[in-house]
Specification:
Layout: E1 2-8, E2 12-20, E3 23-32, H1 39-53, E4 61-65, E5 69-70, E6 75-76, H2 92-99, E7 107-111, H3 112-123, E8 131-137, E9 141-147, E10 150-151, E11 168-169, E12 172-173, H4 180-191, H5 197-204, H6 210-233, E13 237-241, H7 248-259, E14 264-267, H8 274-284
Helix pairs in contact: 3-8, 4-6, 5-6, 6-7
Length: about 290
């Protein structure tokens, strides 16, 4: 079975044809999209991707979109968020279905972080586990809480809408401590130097100092914030993706210290293809 997939990020749109037997991306192509793109121009890019894929009549479509978004309805809710404002209130499902060259099968939408988590669960670092929490660490903290192949948005150990950025640590939302901007701000306040995270990580690898201290604080805070969710959700594995996960050699020890519980820690196995496979898996569910 093949599934047509569209995955939308902050500045890109990827179209892919995915098979799930076994899970693999057969082909994919990426287009640049501006965050301030018009609704019509956005649909033009989507349709260019659809024509390039040409999956045929009856093919299911899985479409991964960042939030805020009404996923059951396929309608954007991008109000005052600084991206895709032209899609606020726009019925993407109806516009997409009406312009496809062939009559589609089901068209389903899901959160982009959930698509990443489902992909890692289906054929990645969380494969073989029943319950997994997958985090993307970068501009913010994206998250997916996966139970038996389903992305959960509520229930024990699941923050509101399954989104870890709602978690409060130290009296503020988690992203005020664990995010690219938070790490850069913490280093700037202590040194007066405005460095990016990868530069701070390079300094931390040289030995003890401000850079190492800043990163240790952020990653231990992440562990402490996630610890009760790992416990209550019953997560067997915690998967890390996103740009900051590239510093796993600096993350693991303080994160484990903060978690203070036994859970498998892994770096995402295929962060590029995981969202595509995850969207396909979601579209293939009965």
């Amino acid at each position: 079975m093949t599934v047509a997939v569209v995955e939308v990020g902050g500045s890109h749109l990827t179209a892919a044809l995915v098979t799930l037997e076994p899970p693999a991306v057969l082909r994919s192509r990426r287009w640049h999209v501006d965050p301030d793109i018009s609704a019509e121009a956005f649909m033009d890019v989507m349709l260019e991707g659809a024509h390039w894929l040409a999956p045929g009549a009856g093919a299911p479509w899985g479409i991964a979109m960042p939030g805020p978004f009404d996923y059951p309805a396929g309608i954007g809710r991008f109000e005052n968020v600084g991206k895709f404002e032209a899609l606020n209130g726009f019925d993407i499902r109806a516009a997409f279905a009406a312009r496809l060259p062939d009559t589609p099968g089901r068209i389903v939408f899901l959160n982009d972080a959930d698509s990443f988590g489902l992909g890692e669960f289906t054929a990645g670092a969380a494969e073989g586990f029943r319950r997994a929490i997958c985090l993307t660490l970068g501009t913010g903290v994206g998250s997916a809480f996966i139970a038996d192949g389903v992305a959960m948005s509520s229930g024990p150990g699941v923050p509101p809408d399954g989104e870890a950025h709602f978690i409060v640590w130290g009296g503020a939302e988690l992203e005020e401590t664990m995010s690219r901007r938070a790490i850069r701000r913490a280093y700037l306040e202590r040194t007066g130097a405005d460095l990016d995270v990868h530069e701070i990580a390079d300094l931390a690898r040289r030995g003890p100092g401000v850079a190492a201290s800043v990163l240790e604080h952020a990653f231990q805070a992440l562990g402490e914030a996630m610890s009760p969710y790992v416990r209550d959700f019953g997560a067997e594995v915690l998967v890390l993706g996103g740009s900051i996960a590239g510093s796993f050699d600096l993350i693991e020890a303080p994160l484990r210290k903060g978690l203070a519980r036994d859970v498998v820690l892994r770096v995402a196995a295929d962060p590029e293809n995981a969202p595509l496979i995850g969207a396909a898996a979601h579209a293939s569910r009965p």
